[in-house]
Amino acid sequence: MALTEAQVQKLNIQFKGIPPEEIISWAVKHAETPVVTTNFRPYEVAILHAVSGVRNDIPVVWCDTGYNTPKTYKHADEIISKLDLNVKLFVPKQTTAHRDAVMGIPQIDDPRHAEFTEQVKLEPFKRAMAEFKPDVWFTNLRKGQTAHRDSLDILSLSKDGVLKVSPFYHWNDTQLDTYLKKYNLPNEHNYFDPTKVLENRECGLHS
């Protein structure tokens, strides 16, 4: 789906306050190769439920760093089964055990942190995008998560020209809690991202 920045801005005005399902339906109707990405962090189940409710066969790209908590892995399995998701798993080329032995998890000020982030997150993500070549990318980005994400909106264009669709962009945690309760969806807050260190730091995929 080829849109200009001006068209995206106009659509964002129209879509504000529109139910996520309607935004997703619009995007699916115009998409040729849509994907949804997830890391099964808190509230990810909302976007997975909403997208799969519109079209269940959309590839769900899960780039697993290998450092998730046991609760996150159990949560992921529960959601995958409950929603019958079409999960496509991408993992780093080096095992976690090997990396732990030679590098560990570098702190943010460690020169190796960039290499670590590339290995566990960016390279698997680039590999996934190269395989699926999406024109529409569903995400659960929300306003207030990071400074960079505050500059985005429901619709935004990635640096590669892919249309990112974040139908819950203007929703807060309370609204999402209500959504999850309405549809009897599980949530899990025991989540660990080894590349972020700080909760409000951008993960690298969206910047």
Automatic annotation (TrEMBL):
InterPro entries: PAPS_reduct_dom (IPR002500), Rossmann-like_a/b/a_fold (IPR014729). One of its GO terms (cellular component) is cytoplasm. One of its GO terms (molecular function) is phosphoadenylyl-sulfate reductase (thioredoxin) activity. GO terms for biological process: sulfate assimilation, phosphoadenylyl sulfate reduction by phosphoadenylyl-sulfate reductase (thioredoxin). Pathway: Sulfur metabolism; hydrogen sulfide biosynthesis; sulfite from sulfate. Residues 34-187 form the Phosphoadenosine phosphosulphate reductase domain. Belongs to the PAPS reductase family. CysH subfamily. PANTHER family: PHOSPHOADENOSINE PHOSPHOSULFATE REDUCTASE. This is Phosphoadenylylsulfate reductase (Thioredoxin).
